[in-house]
Design goal:
Blueprint lengths: L1 E2 L2 E3 L3 E15 L3 H11 L12 E8 L10 E8 L5 H13 L6 E4 L11 E3 L1 H5 L8 E3 L7 E6 L2 E6 L2 E16 L2 H15 L5 E2 L11 E3 L8 E3 L22 E9 L2 H15 L5 E5 L10 E4 H5 L1
Helix pairs in contact: 1-2, 4-5
Length: 303
């Protein structure tokens, strides 16, 4: 199969189940919204070591937020549901509460299994920072919220945040003739994906250069470099997946609330990537179906 003259390999990406939260951070203007969003989603690439996979979903105009101020929706994905409470408590407490002018609300908008959604008391717990000067907001919002006195006024936070069931690890690989063309293709893919609601691309700028495989020759590591996709090893190993002319590979990894959102993001991301000259082919990362139960075949997504 070809798309815009670029080969689409007949393979599938393999993703796995996860839990996630989706929060809305608002601030006095877009500048401070973006600062809060960037700080709060930092160190959120892979759950191999990070506390969660984190990223910015969408920016929200003032007329669509509870306090009529500009906002950003952030998403956090984790494999263990009992750890999500700490993820939100730490990230909101250290990064949103401390950021000038911010407020924070729940923003979950659908999930893989709505019946399995549950709530965590993030705002209720953070109110204790107010040292008994905190107050419950009465009648302003259709949900329970607290106002905590801080040095620039008050920090408003919703009492309860929902946790949904989603999918982590949707992906596709961009193989290019050189770093410049592959990077531009990946950037265009991420830009297209950023317009899709309910998904994030958690790696730096949405792009992963250090794709990994399960296991290592070092017994103390559970993951290591994906050597079959490393261009500098192409002539040094027998199992390389690269061909003549493949000099750079980037992976776009996607986490989403639903299968529809993952598939839509993969589709428009690939369609954007293949428009860049110098892209040789598109593939996807999988572990032979052994890692996760969600498998998305590229030909099906694009047909």
């Amino acid at each position: 199969m070809e798309l815009n003259g670029v080969e689409i390999e007949d393979t599938f990406c393999e993703a796995f189940g996860a839990v996630f939260t989706r929060i809305l951070v608002t601030a006095i203007n877009e500048k401070w919204v973006k600062i809060a969003a960037q700080i709060t989603t930092g160190y959120g690439t892979s759950t191999i070591h990070c506390d969660s996979e984190a990223g910015i979903d969408i920016l929200v105009p003032p007329e669509k937020t509870p306090d009529n101020r500009p906002g950003a929706v952030l998403m956090f994905f984790k494999t263990k549901k009992d750890q999500m409470d700490n993820v939100l408590l730490n990230r909101i407490g250290q990064c949103v509460l401390t950021c000038p002018t911010t407020a924070c609300f729940d923003a979950i908008n659908g999930s893989l299994d709505v019946e399995k959604e549950f709530e965590i008391k993030t705002g209720f717990k953070l109110k204790f920072f107010g040292d008994k000067f905190e107050e419950k907001l009465e009648g302003k919002y259709p949900f329970e919220a607290w106002k905590i006195p801080v040095m620039d006024g008050e920090f408003i936070i919703q009492s309860m945040f929902k946790v949904g069931k989603g999918i982590a690890g949707g992906n596709f690989l961009i193989m290019g003739k050189d770093q410049k063309s592959a990077l531009e293709a990946a950037e265009r893919a991420v830009e297209a994906i950023s317009k899709v609601e309910n998904v994030i691309a958690p790696f730096p700028g949405g792009i992963a250069r250090s794709g990994s495989k399960v296991g290592s020759q070092y017994s103390f590591l559970n993951a290591s470099t994906n050597d079959p996709l490393c261009p500098t090893l192409k002539d040094k190993i027998s199992e390389s997946l690269l061909r003549d002319g493949d000099s750079c590979v980037y992976e776009v990894i996607i986490d989403g609330a639903t299968e529809d959102s993952i598939v839509k993001a993969m589709k428009i991301g690939i369609e954007a990537a293949v428009k860049v000259p110098g892209v040789n082919r598109i593939s996807a990362g999988n572990y032979g179906g052994k890692l996760g139960k969600f498998q998305y075949r590229l030909h099906d997504i694009l047909s």
